[in-house]
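Reviewer 2 asked us to include a model.

Predict the structure of this chain.
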Amino acid sequence: MKSRMLVLLLGLVLIAGAWPDGDRPVIRPDKGEAYTAGHLIVTLAPGMRGVVNLGQEGETALFGIPALDEICRHWKVDDITALWRSPTVPPEAERLNCDLQYVIQFPAEQNIFPVKTELEARPEVLDVCRNAWLPLDEVPDDPRYQGQWHFPPLGAPYAWGIAKGDSTVINLVIDDGLDWTHPDIEANLWVCPLEDINGNGRFDPLPYPDGDLDGVDQSGSGYADDVIGYDFVSGDADPRPNGSDTHGTHCWGIVNAVTNNSVGIAGATWNTRSVAVRAGGGGGVSLYAAISAIYWGTNHPQFDLWAISMSFGGNSPFQPMRDACQYAWDIGCVLYGSAGNDGSEVIRYPACYDGVENTAATSSGDMKASWSNYGTWVDISAPGDGILSTVNRQTGSEYQTMSGTSMSAPLAAGVAAWMKSLDPTLTNHACTALMHAAADSMPDPLYAQGKLGAGRVSMANVVLPRFHCNLTMTDWRWNDAGGNSNGRPDPGETAALIVTYANSAGWQDATNVTATLSSPVGGIEILKNTAGFPNIPAGASGNCSADSFVVRIPANVPPQMMKFMLTVSADPSPAYPDTQFIVQSGDPRVLLVDDDLGRDYEKWYIAACDTNGILHDHWDVQARGAAPGYSDLADYPVVIWWTGDDSTTTLQPADRSALAQYLDAGRKLILSGQNIAEQLQGESFLRDYLRAEFADGSTGKPFLPGVSSCPIVRGDTMVAGGGGGAGNGRSLDGVRAVNGGAGSAYYQDYGDPDVFAMIRYKETDGQALVFFAVPFEALNHSTARYLQKWTLLRRIFEWMGEAVPGVADEAGELPRLEDKRPYALRVTPSPVTGRAWVEFTAPVTGRVELRVYGLTGRLHSTTEQTVSFGERSRVEFDATGLAAGTYLLQLHTPAGAYAQRATVVR
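Predicted model (structure tokens):
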């Protein structure tokens, strides 16, 4: 326990007892939230305003209201403490009855529910609830994790280059206390000058005259000696945590850690200030203490509170806390609550109260953290996985990583505080609207379903509109009038691409708009890779119909989903210049016949095709009520047919007849099923078309070494079991190759080398067959030592003579858009004629290196420079010795690499 000084609460006339006992046992029922023993929060009816006269009768605390005083005597109430301490009650508080909330205390061993029932029956009482003990929303993580990965995705370095916070903006983190003497914390504490008795600009928790504790409320806040804040659990002015409690110190550092001080870490707000409170401990927060902290912060006469962070919660709503949050919102504060860490779609409070921004957690890549709650009630998302921040030094460390929505809520609150410092006129309504509008979209499917709020919070997007236009591709269409006029670029066609860009309202007008088209798809030709657009004012759109792109797709390019990238340039430069999109080219040549009696094995076949970029159509026999006939199959050069676990209706006579006609027509079949051979033994179709003879209905040998001479398997081993497959390889047929067929894979340790699991057959006229006597979907791909399903499928297609879309190498792949942040590098002037500056906001203090590459990968030059974290910096780019063309500029820093292209002209 921290050492505490006796604080004389002089002048606090509303208190009947000394202070509610914050160290009482916490009752943890099987259902519902935990609560403090012997405490109830009572809200009196509006008619009691002006009637209450708190007093003491021996050991009994009284309201001064006869009916309630009888209840107090009966249940031995020994303390009544008002949650509202301000001497004035504004209309917003009176409307919500905030000034009529009290916590009453009676013996800890007394069951609270009879007391609660008796109070609720009185007309003088409006509401009664437990003093809930709400758990902190934290998931412990690896303390050795180094680095604050969460700031670059927010564009914080760029944003700090525009504004570094304002010390007049005050925020409040309601938690389990703060190690306020931490070297990366103390300088950003708000200090009340009226309570700082010795006038040294810091809190000295010693009796006056050596320190600031004189037991007098000089500030008029209702609390004595609140120099930097207050401990609402123990009732004194020192908000340090007990023992090893460190959650609050961690959350506080996320918002407020002193930045640019050559010590430790950075906080989101840079220069704003925070007050320090303690409202809980031991993994939870007291409802009474949290409400008191809100009222203290919102009514303090010496500062104007702006942002409140609450990283705790439960599933039950409590009216007094709802009223406190509503009051804070009504007077102009922004509030952020953690969504919870159950990994489920559940409502939690206080995050779901009106006026509170419900904050979910993200991990790297802007995906929802696996343990974060989600739902349509989430308002915003913020990084919360592996967040490095300050911790209570009683734990033996100064910094540690933690994970949880507990980390996301203070980060979002910190961004809101930074936004207020950028624009002091910002209202809470305008702040939340702007934060939502500026949020980055997320690739997580839950975002598209509206269950992660407005997206992942961004700082850079708040300020980018001041300096950039925001051109977003809203439409594109292909003009293939010289081909089949189906509105897409098919093999054998030349097509024009017409793109429409919209410029977001509130951003800068875009002039001199041009765009460049590129693609990693091998074989295609971009005959015209640039296009011009009209000027696009903010809020307007424009297209390149007068100067379109032109693309030719050679006839030998296989059907596929083609990737393209557009890079737009304009004056001023677009914030997000790159757009990737995908377009279908050609009709599918492959039909997937899903004949597995309604099982979901199709996902393994679809995944194998998609991994290879193979276009396909899907025929679900169960859904359609019939298998495809020959006329249906004939439209596709390749059919992949599987029967899954079917052991009774495998390949009916009509199916065999259709497949026989299909193969006779010189087509290509891939057939898979673990009971096909056993069911068809003796049938001519098995021998004449599948080139197989039944040998064993259950070999019991899952390992399938490939025949070394097989051009498909090439001696590699497959395994029909284990991870990475459907797990249904329970009846593995053994077959012999007959009638020209050849074995491709056999059963390890089976004993008969002529019994196979896979047979191939091909004729010169185009007919080709691969027959799996095992379920293809069961093949394991969890480890690299086994042949992967998609690799096997690609080899089958190549052996059959089917063109497969090319797999682009690393150099040909389109860059990930999340690695091309618009605020990372800026080249001025652009294009470059001789010398230019590469400008950026330094993500570190120390050495950075600018590397200049040609598009072939050749390194042309390197330049080193020392920078200071958060400052706007620049490195010279000397292009005088470079030929005209496009170059890649990479800035390498300990915090990561940033890239931008530059065009050199002569």
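Residues 405-422 form the longest helix (18 residues). Residues 1-17, 138-146, 807-820 have pLDDT under 50 and may be disordered. We have added this to the supplementary material.
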